[in-house]
Amino acid sequence: MTITVANTEKEFYNLAAWRIAEEISNKPDALFGFSTGRTTGGIHAALVEIYNRYPFDTSRLTVFGLDEITNVSRDYFGSCYYMLLNELVKPLGIPVENYIMPPTHSNNFLRECRDYENALSARGPVALQILGIGENGHIGFNQPGSSFGSTAWVSKMDPELDSRIRRETGSPPDADLGGLTLGIKNIMQSKKILLVANGERKAQIIRDALLGPVTEKVPASVLQLHPDCEVILDTEAAGKMRDEEFGRRN
Ligand code: GLP
After folding, report:
1. pTM for the whole structure
2. Is 38's C-beta closer than 6 angstroms to any atom of ligand 1?
3. Would the pLDDT of 246 be above 90?
């Protein structure tokens, strides 16, 4: 695992975006996994800026989202489909047929999970999976306690996100909001992983995930076992680790 610490927020977004641009340029016909959130949103914007200045070939690239909210419209601005479409697929000129996402509506999400994995395997392996991290250590929608052996599944939405989505979408109380996510086992099968985190609110979980025990209680701690995982942080997210504990690079 290599850990790089950026000195400013802008440097953090740019550093991560350049790493992704570099990987895409080296493997222009490969499969790349993205995730949504405030952290990756800033990185996507920086990646689009790089692309506009120094265009790279995206015509053969296949991209997918790590997770999706169930039982909301794809047109909802908080759906992962909508976010990645507008943050990446459209501005990078990625052909829409090369954008793979699970549906948000279905009468059989179990089947959708298997179909999603099969669609990815048909284009796989995943050359690079970009991951954010939740303050409780979740990756994708794999909350603490998720099995390291999990494959794509629908996890229970955490109460805070659940109420935000209901507020924003006006979903009825009986709408079953869930988090359809690639499982930890799927994530670990990616050839390369880039974990990104910024801000003070991530400092404790970053310490726990990168330096603490590998445990299902902290899903992101599994990344310590991945043979090619790179971590990019800002100084705040790295704030609870001493340089000598992780061999600081910047
Ligand atoms: C959501 C997503 C995760 C993401 C996380 C972090 O829970 N399902 O894939 O990593 O948010 O979001 P943020 O960057 O906004 O902290």
Report:
1. 0.96
2. yes
3. no
- Whether 132 is in the pocket of ligand 1, judged by its Cβ within 6 Å, is yes
Task: Evaluate: CB of 134 within 6 angstroms of ligand 1.
Answer: yes
Nearest CA to ligand 1 atom 2: 140
* pLDDT, mean of residues 83-108: 98
CB of 141 shorter than 6 A to ligand 1: yes
Q: Which is more confidently placed, 248 or 203? A: 203
- The whole-number pLDDT of residue 66 equals 98
The domain ranges of the chain are 7-182+190-198+213-218
| Ligand 1 near 35 CB (within 6 A) | yes
Which residues are CB-contacts of 230 (< 8 A; sequence separation ≥ 6)?
A: 1, 2, 3, 4, 19, 192, 193, 194, 195
Residue-wise pLDDT tens digits, 21-36: 999 999 999 999 999 9
Q: How far is CA 246 from CA 12, 136, 231, in A?
A: 18, 21, 11
Q: Are 127 and 191 in contact (CB under 8 A)?
A: yes
Is residue 160 lining ligand 1, measured as CB closer than 6 Å?
Answer: no
Q: Which fold has domain 7-182+190-198+213-218?
A: Rossmann fold (3.40.50)
Candidate of 39, 131, 142 to mutate for ligand 1, largest count of ligand atoms within 8 Å of Cβ: 39
**CA distances (Å), 44 to each of 36, 173, 219, 238, in order?**
9, 33, 24, 21
34, 36, 81: residue to mutate for ligand 1 pocket, most atoms within 8 A of CB: 36
